[in-house]
Amino acid sequence: MPSALHNLTLANGLQVTLRHAPQLKRCAAAVRVAAGSHDAPAAWPGLAHFLEHLFFLGNQRFALDDGLMRYVQHHGGQVNASTRERSTEFFFEVPPAAFAGGLERLCQMLAHPQFDLERQVREREVIHAEFIAWSRNPQAQRQFALLQAAGSAHPLSAFQAGNRYSLQVQNPAFQAALRGFHQRYYQAGQITLSLSGPQGLDELRALANSFGQVFSHGAKVQQSLPPSFNSRALLLMHNERQLDVLYPCEQLPAGFEQAVDFLATWLSDIRPGGLPATLRARGWLAHFEFSSLYSFAGQTLLHAGFKLNDPADAEQVRALLTDWLAFFRTADLSSINQEYARLQRCRELAASALELARRDSTGQRFDALDAQGLAALEQLLETMLAGQVKTPTHAWQLPAANPLLSVKTQTLSVSTVPEGLTVSPLLPPSREHGVIYLRWQLTSALRGRLWQVLDRALQALREQAAQAGVQVQLSACDKYWQLRCAGNGTVVAAVIEQALTILRQPPSQSWTPGAGEQPDNMPIRALLRQLPEQLLGCRVDEPLPACTISQSDLDALWEHSTWNGLSSGFSASQQSVLNQALSAMPGCAGRHLPTTIEPVRRWQSLPPAASEQALLLFCPIEDQAAGRLLAQQLQGPFYQRLRVELNLGYAVFSAFRQIEGCNGLLLGVQSPSARHAEIIGHIQALLDNLPATLSCNPADKQALAAQLDEAAMTNNEVAEWAWQAHLAGHLQPQLSDLQAAILAVETPQLQHLARQVSQAKHGWLCLANGPAPSENWH
User: Fold this and answer.
1) How deeply is 508 buried, as exposed, middle or buried, from its count of CB atoms within 10 A (0-12, 13-18, 19+)?
2) pLDDT digits (tens, 9 = 90+) for 205-260
3) What pLDDT does 542 receive?
4) Topology adopted by domain 4-212
5) Pairwise CA distance, residues 430 & 489, whole Å
6) Which of 56, 324, 413, 619 has the highest CB neighbour count under 10 A?
């Protein structure tokens, strides 16, 4: 279903983009302000980032507890903001019924912030906690080191995040600069508002006119031009396995951003004949990434990052990169530009409302390169190859057409659903989005190492499927493997057929070990990654067996495995194709028992050891309706107490979660100052006091029930809810039953559940990167 895009300018000068996308179920708004950290006064590093935080603290029109963040969370949406070097972005996504309220709050908070000094002092400590975490994060420090290539005169090499010392909130000069920055840049002439959703353009236009007028009238301010980069590409060797090549490019013509995306698409393509495939064939490459670290006013800093294996020669890798660029510069790009157009159409159809609004705010279209873009690409490559040999010597090839971009619907007679697969009707075929989950229970001690083989083997298919708007995920959790595939139903069926072939017999090169990508070492994220296995009862990481593995080991693993799965959203013909593909399923169909959690308090100390304390608390809940309502009412007080009043840290959250078929409250805190015993003590005190504060407001119940309507949930959320119910052993669950149960919850029931949670009647699972505070924990 095609989108309709429309641009307009309001009377106050606000630039607006409207996108009517009938396939969407949610709406999104993105505000892009043409001002970022490099536009703030040099005397106050971090001022722009600090202001971004202040907007969310409430104002006279909407107090903190009724502001954008609480409102969006209350309606089951998502909200965030980002301060870049020359722009700042604010965005949210909600169901259509909540869109007007969210848009009003977004525009009001940006146009009329509150500069209360006490709030500023408190929020500065949050910024400082972020700064401490950033300064200790290896990935962040590596990126900061890369930016030094811009040269000491360029603001990219300067500190811009802000901390306790750069944000001198008591200084009158700082306050004047803060207000002056807001007045200069947060006015209509400097802002683009982008709206996307299933509504018609007339309705979106009315919303923009109604709420966009709150910004003061203004003309666009010309942002200062940056100084020139250093004049040469810089090669950084961080260690023997990491190679970073930087290309500072400037004086590029308009349209160069899409040219960069075009180049990144084909340079990163892993099919035979390209750079990654050539390096992997030599056993040199573990991981490759290519992106722009910065773009503004004809400047871009491009980064090619290689994680190398031991036999690799860094200089030869760099030479091959140069050789590929030389080949690409002289190649006939007409065929892959047509392929790029097909890829862009798939990206547009697969994008969420939020992704569409954010992209529209940048002005980039989902099109092939036009004449301007091709000219920008030519100049970009000329700049990257300046002073280097430009005649390719290697036999490179452009990637062949991706067959998944042109899969045709097959017409098959209705086939029998295979034993082991449940077909859920919760996601209607009219959504044109199919999701299938396949799960194996395994007994082999080699499953960890064999999973690594299969994960590598699926990489090419995963990337091809992503180009066609289909997600392919193979995950491992203790004794279970899970394959999830989601997207256009016709393409999903074709992908599953190929995936099962690969899982049965992966290509020979997949058996060669490679260095896995290093996960983010932020402690709270590390605990979140480990939570599913801990819920299943896995307590320690066992070392992988060191023996040689082969196809016979994989055959034996499949022979002794049992599988089941669930599909939803497929038409009858698509389901028939899927059923046929599943005839090649490895393993035997069988039932998997639901996960059970012991009703005890369990504390599990897990890596990584870090300078900041991180803690996750999972509280199992049997009554899903009351549990979701409790989570809704806990979210605000939890954030207010631990994040705002106690200022424990910037990573503070609470939510209802379904993990491995288990329902529960998930509470998380990462703190640079509080000890684990203090964190869990604050949580316990909050939970102890919670029951007396609870009441079943009909409006709250209605709002929560509305979030769980199929028409308001994303397609993936509907399928995931069905899958979690399947894992819990429920047959053909109905969202309408859950909605009715939510509306029937009364205050005594909610308070009783809160007391059970506080007393850990159904158990507590606490994951922390430190030891238990007392012997009361198992």
Assistant:
1) exposed
2) 999 999 999 999 989 999 999 999 986 666 777 677 899 999 999 999 988 999 99
3) 57
4) Cytochrome Bc1 Complex; Chain A, domain 1 (3.30.830)
5) 11
6) 619
Average pLDDT for the chain:
93
Contacts of 99 (CB under 8 A, 6+ apart): 27, 29, 197, 199, 207
In whole angstroms, give the CA distance from residue 96 to residue 89: 21
Six token digits for residue 714: 């994303």
What global pTM score does this model have? 0.92
Domain boundaries, the chain: 4-212, 234-333+369-394, 421-589, 601-768
Residue-level pLDDT at 449? 93
Tens digit of pLDDT for each residue in 115-143?
Answer: 999 999 999 998 998 888 888 778 888 88
Confidence of residue 440 (pLDDT cuts 50, 70, 90): very high
The residue behind tokens 């002289």 is 330
CATH superfamily placement of domain 601-768: Metalloenzyme, LuxS/M16 peptidase-like (3.30.830.10)
4 φ/ψ angles, rounded to the nearest 5 degrees: -120, 125
Contacts 24+ apart (CB under 8 A), 230-237: 230/149, 230/150, 230/151, 232/387, 233/384, 234/149, 235/318, 236/145, 236/146, 236/149, 237/314
Say how many Å lie between the first and final Cα of the chain, rounded: 55
CB-facing half-sphere around the CA of 403: CA atoms within 13 A: 7
Whether 52 is catalytic is yes
pLDDT-derived band at 470 (thresholds 50, 70, 90) equals very high
Half-sphere exposure of 525 (CA within 13 A, CB side): 7
Helices (H), 41-195: 47-55, 68-74, 99-111, 117-135, 138-147, 172-185
Q: How far is residue 390's CA from residue 399's CA, in Å, rounded to a whole number?
A: 21
The pair phi, psi for residue 537, each rounded to 5°, is 100, 0
**CATH of region 421-589, choose from 3.40.440.10, 3.30.565.10, 3.30.830.10, 2.40.260.10:** 3.30.830.10
Q: Are 88 and 358 in contact (CB under 8 A)?
A: no
pLDDT tens digits for 152-189? 889 999 988 899 999 999 999 999 999 999 999 999 99
| Closest C-alpha among 445, 448, 604 to residue 540 | 604
Name the residue among 514, 551, 519, 549 with its Cα closest to residue 276: 514
pLDDT at 241: 86
Whether the pLDDT of residue 541 is over 90: the answer is no
Contact yes or no for 738/718 (Cβ under 8 A)? no
Fill in the amino acid letter for 509. Q
Report the share of the chain in percent with pLDDT over 70: 96
4-212 and 234-333+369-394 have identical folds = yes
Residue 1: exposure state from Cβ atoms within 10 A (0-12, 13-18, ≥19): exposed
Domain covering 234-333+369-394, topology: Cytochrome Bc1 Complex; Chain A, domain 1 (3.30.830)
